[in-house]
């Protein structure tokens, strides 16, 4: 079995596995999900309470916060608005 990843740094392995575009997308997704989880916690809301005010189910919120799903923009916006935030995009 050839494991070419042995002895390489995580950055080197990531560069071999993903394109620069994929890495940027993943990093942006992680930042967004962390921001959502942080905002929920700062407001003192449980995932179940956020479910009630956003209309997004608690299991979906949990998977989003863990990075297990690629949520649709509509779902993300429901949560952001429920948390009193807004989405800003910069280029």
From TrEMBL:
Q: Which top-rank group of organisms is this from?
A: Bacteria
Q: Which PROSITE patterns match?
A: HTH_CROC1
In this chain the HTH cro/C1-type domain maps to 36-91
Looking up CDD domains in the UniProt record yields: HTH_XRE
> What InterPro entries does the annotation carry?
Cro/C1-type_HTH, Lambda_DNA-bd_dom_sf
List, in alphabetical order, the Gene Ontology terms for molecular function in this entry. Answer: DNA binding
Q: What is this protein called?
A: Helix-turn-helix
